[in-house]
Structure formats: C-alpha cells, structure tokens
Amino acid sequence: MRIALFATCLADTLFPEVAKATVAVLERLGHQVDFPAEQTCCGQMHVNTGYQRQALPLIRRYVETFEPHEVIVAPSGSCVGSIVHQHAMVARRQGDLELASRAEAVAARTHELSQLLIDVLGVEDVGAYYPHRVAYHPTCHSLRLLQVGDRPLRLLRAVAGLDLVPLADAEVCCGFGGTFAVKNADVSTAMLADKMGNVLGTGAEVCTAGDSSCLMHIGGGLSRLRTGVRTVHLAEILAST
Q1: In terms of pTM, does the model score above 0.85?
Q2: Range(s) for CATH 3.40.50 in the chain?
Q3: Is the pLDDT of residue 194 over 90?
C-alpha cells in the first residue's frame, strides 16, 4: 500500500525522529511511504486561538497537498483531530462550501498512526523489540476527539521485551493544551505536576504517548526534576528492533 505521511510541525521543527520512525514502521511492514514536500501546518493552532480566517489558507494547502493520496497518516492525534473535526467546519464557516466538501473527503482518508496500523492495515504486532518498563499517557485529542481507545495499548502489548505498566489517572490531561500552557501557566504547571507524580509512581523508565506536544510538556518537567524518566513517542517504540 502507498501511504502519504503528514509529518506535522513539531516533527518538522523539533522531533524529526518521530516522522522517521513512522516511516520505518510502515516500510518494515512492506508499505511505500510518500512525503509530499508541499505540506505545511494543519492550522490547528490558528483555529484553537480564534483565527479561523487565517487558518483557511493552511486548510486549503493541506487539502490540495493530500487530495491525490488514498491513505494518509500522521504521528499525532492532535493534528489528525484538527483535520477531522475542524477543517471542513472552518471552511464552511468561512463560506467556502466547495473546500469544505473536499476537506471532508481528505479527512476521511487521514489516520492517526495507531488507527492506521490496527483499523486500516490490520496489524498489532509490528515486529518491535523494546526492553523497557513503559507507561502510556493517552493524549486528550486522541482519546476524546479521535477515540483511539485501546489501540496504542494493543500495539505496545505486542512489543517484545516491553513491560507495560498501568498509569494512575491516565485519562487526565497533562496540562499542555497548546497555547493553554502559555496563557494559563500556573494551572498547566499544577496539572503537569499531578501527571508527573503518577508517571513516577509507576516506576517506569519511559513515558510514551501518540503526541509529541504532550511528550514535550511531560518530558520537560521530568527533565527539570532530573528524574531519569524519558519520554518517547509511540512511533519510536514501534520502530525499535
């Protein structure tokens, strides 16, 4: 199968290893991965901060870039959540009904990594080996917008050598929330402290999730406290052999 990769801004600017790991997993499974070079931001940041009109060109760019592709994947529940739940809505509100229709069609072919692997490719064991004690944090957008459910857990349970430990209050937000962490720093920090306490309570070596944004937030806190606990994206674990 030919699969187009939407790398996302964070992978492009800060965490390129996540995009590379996504490619590695899919190629190991025998699929061809295309990277449309015209891709840019999905526009989520603009929409979430009230700049819907400014987001419209980014939505149009996403649609035009990925419209030729039948299957699209992104290693981010947050970005896929925006594509699925915001793109057509914003286009419709801005009066571009034709773009809204096209956006709905492209969104229907866009998948978060765990959804693609399990729902589209029918795979749970991707042949990974990761001999570490791991806690999984289900990010808000993947959990609530995309409803990925236990798909990431099923993938992690199939990884050889991995000891998956339960995380207390796993479904509680880590406090990042994009610009929420900037505009409401004190509340965000308090939420992060609770999440870090629960992660440390597991005795895990690694905290994983399907969004680099949340891992950046959690990882920053764990690093500042010098806990020794690392944050690793789900794609990187699945790419390990």
Answers
A1: yes
A2: 133-239
A3: yes
